Amino acid sequence: MKKNILLIFSLILTTALFAGGYKVGDKADNFKLKGVDGKKVSLKDYSDEKGVIVIFTCNHCPYAKLYEDRIIALNNEYAPKGFPVVAINPNDPEVQPEDSFDLMKVRAEEKGFTFPYLFDAKQEVYPAFGATRTPHVYLLKNKGGDFYVKYIGAIDDNARDASKVEEEFVATAIDALMAGERVATTETKAVGCSIKTK
Prior knowledge:
By secondary structure, the protein is an alpha+beta fold. It has helices at about 1-20, 60-80, 100-110, 125-130, 170-180; strands spanning about 25-30, 30-35, 40, 50-55, 85-90, 115-120, 135, 135-145, 145-155, 195.
């Protein structure tokens, strides 16, 4: 009986340790992934920036496509202010062939991405963050070369129609950080396609 209780407790503890990924306030570990230009990009590459907008996204998902122009706009507005976008495709192309590295290059070229589009080929980065959807945003703030999570969730409150957005969650959070204020809404529900894995 004791062995069973210990085993159950051990399983619960293990699940708790590995489930969920980062929470608001956590320090994000460095990662290094290949981008569509063939160059490796790491979080540490952004140590001179105020922060980074990490967005897990992909080629095929209708929600990811709906947000592409808004992601470009976010980068165009906030990269010059010290908060660039870093996009990461977390999907396994054997499960979803449209999300292959070669097709990532095509998509980035077609849309004119102004930010790195990286491939989580070993599917190690998205579980560390706790991403479950595409798109799924993690706003990081740089503090002494370490990056801390300040917001997790959706880009805004209307995936289907950009013209009807009432709350721009990411933009509002960045504006607060730049003003030295507390981020009022630190977490929202990411709306999109599930991440594809075997």
